[in-house]
Amino acid sequence: MALLEVEHLTLRFPAAGGSVPVVDDVSFAIDAGEVLALVGESGCGKSMTALSILRLAPKPGRIEAKRIGLDGRDLRTLPVTEMRRVRGREISMIFQEPMTSLSPVATAGAQVVEAIRLHERVSQRAARDRVEELFRQVGIPDPGARRDAYPHELSGGLKQRVMIAMALATRPRLLIADEPTTALDVTIQAQILELLRGLQRDLGTAILLITHDLGVVNELADRVAVMYAGRIVERGERAEVLGSPRHPYTEGLLASMPAHAVAGQRLTEIAGVVPQPSEWPEGCRFSTRCPRVVDRCRTEVPAVVSLGETQSAACHLVSGEGA
Question: For 240, which of 231, 236, 249, 252 could close a Cys bridge (C-beta 3.0–4.6 Å)?
């Protein structure tokens, strides 16, 4: 049995004449100790998917799902008090903006102490000692001094490490990392990725990695799910999806990577932008931006086509019936 099983997850918001889904019929599973990367441009619904799993989607959003299972328990039906225990203790999340996720009026250590004591019956002193050990574990230099520093006294990389330490404080079985290397320089990015890789290897932590950076995916992920306009359009093992993409959106993401640039030529880009949920086109939602679009794409929603034992894509072209 998978550690996390998400089945037919939809997140809706009220709109004129009804409601609009921002996450639409999403399903995936993560095994213990596995890294699943959820990939796509900003606005595709990746972060909202994570918040829905934790039942933290912003109001007045309405979460619908057949099942959100964590080790056999359905998170949809847990009482509020028990769900609060799950957050932080069994599932932790590294939020997207380390610069704004920490309170400016409390020391870094005090904020991690609060997270520990919220879930465990330990003394203030024991919690402070744990913080120093956590800071050492995530590679924060001089952890005793940094424990008593305020966020404005820390660099962006150190703030991100504090957030990771807070997420690991109760030894969660699943870590949701939302753009963990965004806004960090290349050297710090590499250090954070190595830290996450070590956590997976040494502690057996499963990771849901949310990112738009396919370089990060190649460094860390075991499997990849590509998301566009609220739906997963391709999935498979990392080597399959990155080495032999089958959906035109995945192909576009890979082609736009700087590593694939040709000297003296303009970097390839995907034309247009991700449409707002209220403006999603009929048929394939990528049809308004796809360079290989055919008439059928504009009117019919593509079925998910199996392309082997583990890879699949939702595209009329891969079914051989695009024309």
Answer: 236
Residue with tokens 């998910």: 304
Which of 206, 112, 196, 207 shows the shortest CA–CA distance to 162? 112
Cis peptide before 281 (omega within 30 of 0): no
Highest mean pLDDT among 190-204, 256-270, 286-300: 286-300
Single pTM value for the model: 0.91
pLDDT in tens, 128-139: 999 999 999 888
Rounded to the nearest 10 degrees, the angle between the axes of helix 156-168 and helix 186-203 is 10
Strand pairing class (67-70; 62-64) = unpaired
Quick one: which H or E segment has residue 8?
Answer: strand 4-15
Cα 119 to Cα 42, 88, 108, distances in angstroms: 33, 8, 18
Whether 321 shows a pLDDT value over 60: the answer reads: no
**Are β-strands 304-306 and 312-314 bridged in parallel, bridged antiparallel, or unpaired?**
antiparallel
